[in-house]
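Key result, reporting period 2: structure in, sequence out.
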């Protein structure tokens, strides 16, 4: 049995798209034992990168982002990448791989998946004794980078804290970026030298930037040796879908539902072919011997071979997990595969409560299609359902709020049992680069009233469980989505005051910044804080889509 010190000294090439120079390693680490940890000897690399997920391990290791970035960075012989998460159990903020502090790395790279994690970005820097504001950092401090959907959406709220933002997809920019960083002994002192790189936004320069993306998903790497925590099912470190091998079957979505950020900053939809997925499965199961496959991608329901992929997975005796499915994509074949793959619960996202609301948000499907999908799942033994709804939409009426309960009860009446239908109701957060970027966040009293109405409708019916995002937190999320650099001051103060709702109230009061200034309805010709970020959609397209939505909302009131 090797000692812990010996295990830390292992250095081996990562398995990546069929490179079979890999060996399975299990490490007993301070936080959580894992399969396929990559531990490099820092004496043999040119650059060390702390990959920071500003939330807990369980959340960070559920999807593909951390696993992919970890593999991409470690695939380079000259780079050692280690992961840091927000502590789950008050453990020290140290890297999983070698128990090092953020301050020890050359580069600190955040992946920004959710706006509400911005306080955790500042917290991680503060707790590591790195001045959060870039102007206060010295040449001894690491270069701070951020990427992910929130960086592409609107980098401005964190612009005073981050040296460089990646706008778009990592694969398209990572190598030139790392090469450029290596050119400088103190890259943070030369950030203006990065503004010419495609997909890189430099807040100190405020350059205009175009989103970069991978053209062909089949040619993009997929990690085969994925990190899996070797913990008990009930452990707080267990990822949301358990021990899974994750395959990104689709990237992006071309449907452009008017409220959806990913539909606008992630287009176009790109598929991984069935042949490629079969190859990944064959190899991946050698290096990541788990029993469950998690298929992901926002446009997954639109994959032209989705049924074949699911059948291929279950024919290998593997379990299957997909996060959600569009009602119009549900078929007998698909439901049968999911049931065979032991998917116990499925998520459908009608988003709008009625055909009228779904037309306004450009999510065109009628009630019958949603009910039919729920019926098909039930017939195949999938007896638990989650339904997502958005409230606070343009032109919404009380009747439309009540329609959430009507549709949900119609579905439950198909034969769903006790506690088997989970209703998730969330207010619209207007997002940059979508046609709703000019719309207001609904008032908190209005959202509370909608929620009260719904609770009344479901009261006493034990088939349902209802959850919702706290409207005050949703309002802060909208503020962070739609903010500028002023907003960053509030984020910093809120972090220093503890990050809770009371901290936000105090930070807003002391900084004299108004939430409503950012979350009000805006004029279509008003300058917006993210105007310098071009994601590939013209403003005229978004204006046309906004006008269509407003017309739909007004016409049928
Ligand atoms: S809501 Fe779903 S279908 Fe619509 S644009 Fe977003 S990812 Fe695509």
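The corresponding designed sequence is given below.
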């Amino acid at each position: 049995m090797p000692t812990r010190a010996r295990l830390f000294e292992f250095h081996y090439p990562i398995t990546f798209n069929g490179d079979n120079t890999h060996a399975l390693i299990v490490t007993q680490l301070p936080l959580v034992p894992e399969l396929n940890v990559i531990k490099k000897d820092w004496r043999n690399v040119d650059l060390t990168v702390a990959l920071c997920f500003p939330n807990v391990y369980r959340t960070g290791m559920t999807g593909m982002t951390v696993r992919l970035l970890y593999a991409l960075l470690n695939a380079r012989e000259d780079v050692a990448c280690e992961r840091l998460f927000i502590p789950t159990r008050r453990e020290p903020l140290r890297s999983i791989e070698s128990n090092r502090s953020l301050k020890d790395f050359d580069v600190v790279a955040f992946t920004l998946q959710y706006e509400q994690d911005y306080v955790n970005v500042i917290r991680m820097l503060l707790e590591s004794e790195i001045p959060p504001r870039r102007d206060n950092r010295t040449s001894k401090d690491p270069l701070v980078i951020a990427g992910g959907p929130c960086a592409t959406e609107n980098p401005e709220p964190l612009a005073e804290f981050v040296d460089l933002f990646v706008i778009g997809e990592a694969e398209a920019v990572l190598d030139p970026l790392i090469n450029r960083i290596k050119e400088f002994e103190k890259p943070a002192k030369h950030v203006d030298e990065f503004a010419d790189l495609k997909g890189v936004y430099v807040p100190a320069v405020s350059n205009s930037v175009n989103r970069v993306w991978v053209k062909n998903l089949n040619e993009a790497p997929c990690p085969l040796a994925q990190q899996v925590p070797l913990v008990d099912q009930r452990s707080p470190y267990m990822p949301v879908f358990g021990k899974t091998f994750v395959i990104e079957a689709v990237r992006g979505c071309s449907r452009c539902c008017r409220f959806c950020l990913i539909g606008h900053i992630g287009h176009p939809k790109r598929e991984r072919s069935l042949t490629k997925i079969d190859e990944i499965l064959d190899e991946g199961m050698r290096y990541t011997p788990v029993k469950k496959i998690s298929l992901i991608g926002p446009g997954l329901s639109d994959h032209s071979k989705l049924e074949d992929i699911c059948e291929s997975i279950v024919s290998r005796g593997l379990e299957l997990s997909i996060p959600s499915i569009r009602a119009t994509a549900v078929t007998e074949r698909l439901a049968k595969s999911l049931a065979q793959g032991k998917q116990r619960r499925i998520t459908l996202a009608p988003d709008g409560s009625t055909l009228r609301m779904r037309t306004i948000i450009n999510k065109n499907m009628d009630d019958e299609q949603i009910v039919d999908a729920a019926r098909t799942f039930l017939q195949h033994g999938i007896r638990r359902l989650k339904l997502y709804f958005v409230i606070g939409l343009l032109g919404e009426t009380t009747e439309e709020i009540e329609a959430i309960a009507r549709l949900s009860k119609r579905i439950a009446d198909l034969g769903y049992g006790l506690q088997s239908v989970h209703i998730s109701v969330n207010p619209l957060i207007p997002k940059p680069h979508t046609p709703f970027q000019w719309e207001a966040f609904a008032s908190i009293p209005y959202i509370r009233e909608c929620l009260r109405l719904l609770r009344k409708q479901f009261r006493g019916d034990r088939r349902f469980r209802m959850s919702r995002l706290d409207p005050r937190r949703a309002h802060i999320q909208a503020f962070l989505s739609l903010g500028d650099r002023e907003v960053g001051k509030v984020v910093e103060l809120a972090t220093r005051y503890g990050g809770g709702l009371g901290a936000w109230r105090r930070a807003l009061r002391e900084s004299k910044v108004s939430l409503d200034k950012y979350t009000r309805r805006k004029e279509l010709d008003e300058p917006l804080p993210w105007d310098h970020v071009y994601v590939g959609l013209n403003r005229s397209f978004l204006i046309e889509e906004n006008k269509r939505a407003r017309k739909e909302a007004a016409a049928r009131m």
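The mean pLDDT is 93. DSSP finds 19 helices and 20 strands in the chain. This case is discussed further under Risks and Mitigation.
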